[in-house]
Structure prediction request, 767 residues.
Amino acid sequence: MLKKVSIACLVLGSFAFAEQLRQIKFEGLNTLSDKTATDISGLKIGENITNDKITESIKNFYEQGYFKDVWVEKPSSGILVFHFDEKLAISNVEINGYGSGDDATRLLESAGVKKGDFYDSKKIQVAKQSIIASVQSEGFYDTVVEVTTTPVSDSSVSVTFDVNKGEKIKIKKLNLNGAKELDASDFDELLANKEQDFLGWLPLRNSGVANVEQLELDPLRVKDVYMRKGFLDAEVSKPFMRVDFSSYEAEIDYNIVEGEQYKVGQVVVSGTPSGVNIKDMKDDFKLNEGKTFNIEKMRKDIANIKEEVGNLGYAFAEVSPQINKDQEKKIVNISYIVTPGSKVTINDVIIAGNDTTKDRVVRRYVYLAPGDTYKYSDLKDSKNALGRTGFFEKYDVKSQRVSEDKMDIIVDVKEAPTGSISLGGGYGSYEGFMVNGSVSDRNIFGTGIAASVSADLSKISTNFSLNFTNPRLWDSEYSLGVNLFKRDYEYTNYDLDQFGGSLTLGRQLFRNLYISTGISYIDNESEANSDSTSYTYKLLYSDKYEKLSGLLGITFDNTDDYYVPREGFIASANLEYAMIDGDIDAGKATEYGYSDFSDFAKLSLKFGAYYGLEDLIDYDLILRYKARYTLLEAADDDKYVPIAERLYLGGIGSVRGYDAYSISPIYYDTDSVANRVGGTQTFSNSIEASIPISEEAKMRLTFFADYGIVKSDHFIEDFDTIDKSSVGAAIEWNSPFGPINFVFAKAISPEPEDDTSSFEFTMGTKF
Prediction:
């Protein structure tokens, strides 16, 4: 270092008088080219150079972050030689003792060290402390991290972080000294450090593991709970944690002065701009006169005020709550003072993160454009619309202030894999061994167009299909769908052989409302699949006809995600009017009095509601309710509706735990043969609770209860309604190959003639 300093002094001294620069040389430079280094230096051949210019050029090199040391020497007149001592590059980073896979990768990313970085001892020490803090936040006390640096070459090193997690501290006792009105259970929702529950290792139970980093924030959470219960004067001391290091068990003490509980007096809102109906807005308030004060409800009311004002264009409105306590009456008067600011217009819509999806496709789902007046509901609806596409793994729509009356909308997305080529197989309880192959993409070349070609083979089925859907034909509000299929399926009583297709044209009427109309054609060949000699059996299941249908549908969908919605609902109604042409078997006319096939109408209704509880319980629990109703009505009761067109339940999509299409009215003929003849009305519904298994693998566990009924007015007089129910669990995996659903179900009180199924799975179907 003394040598370098003396050389630097020599150079600076030699340039006491200006001298013209003839040549620049670089020694020890590997990271940058000579041309780039010359540009960074700021020096130019032919110019007069001074000590100040040389000093500035050295600073420029240091700012690049590549070098440990930079110095200059002057071997002869007009020549400068820059010498560099470059930092080593990190060729590999490993972490041992913590785990593997995504967990370890995420920990390293949070530490800020990755392959390709330049080695910096200070940065490594910061990363080490970051890893210790992250591991200790998981409850591992006395965590130790050792760093090993191994040379790989003259210019690179490998860095290894060895983690000793230490021991987890379990909180055995939480003492709330002075608490009379509330007890420990009242704080479970918010506290990061709380007592271990009985059987705390079970899901949804509290393990009692201490989070030391969060301990200093817990008094604020205790205070917040009191504020939610109306105790505005509550005082909470800092926590004192006593740890028994022989067992790593801890006890935490708080000293609390509760004070008085307050109820709400007057609630006043002032300063709102014209257009806001204060009376209607106050009717929706969570915190009204006479209720116990709750600061969380007050926060929600503030958010509601901002939303109402934001819907009028005041994006930067501020709401200041004034709380006036009356200690004698034990009431608190609340005054919300609104400062709306200026109306805000959209300056620009900036799309980011979309490598494949076209900007114009993303903009379809953003309901704010440059020049529009800001509206909060448009911002929220845009985010939900992006989620419903299924194109993006992550998505967000944010506002960025540009000036007092302008803002940019930032649409930040991370694309999900929407296309797949798959060839695989499996085993299903009903279909046996299966082989399937498909080529599909829900977002071809980023255009938003979906298409698929698929084939499925099993011991009971052979299916081929071709599908094409353009949801925005020529970027309009219209959609076009084409479907062609060839289907051979072995139902319980008959073999179905169909060929057909459909053409549909749709339009988006409103933001969440869609209609469609179309036609479909099916050529059906059905044959009885049993060796039974029953004449009735063969008559029932041998139908040959052609069907031409008109289709009409309407759908409402305001959910927030395509695969795993956490809010909103889906409702749809589809009507089919079918005209059937075929020659009815003469035996049917004799046996059942039917002279011809009947045209028919079919109405299908579906409803799904989704509600995520994470905001309420700080856990990603999703509740779902799904219902389906179908009605089939013959145009002429004296004519025959084919068995293949009638209604059945069972399997995924209706009542799990029963074989697909096995829940049906049964007609016993003269040979006592059981014939499943289908119904004319079906209803099924499901209640589900879904929890995460692995966020990284996008896997969830869902518990469900199903119930369904089938009614009929064909063949069987005085037919009693069939009702079936089941319970079970499903593993839902949003895999790289598409959604996969593994279902484990138990039929409740099945009859001897029922065909039950304890395991099923599907691919490519939304959960």
Notes: Confidence is low (pLDDT under 50) at residues 1-17. The domain at 345-415 is CATH 3.10.20.310 (Ubiquitin-like (UB roll)). The CA atoms of residues 299 and 321 lie 9 Å apart. The first strand starts at residue 19 and ends at 20.
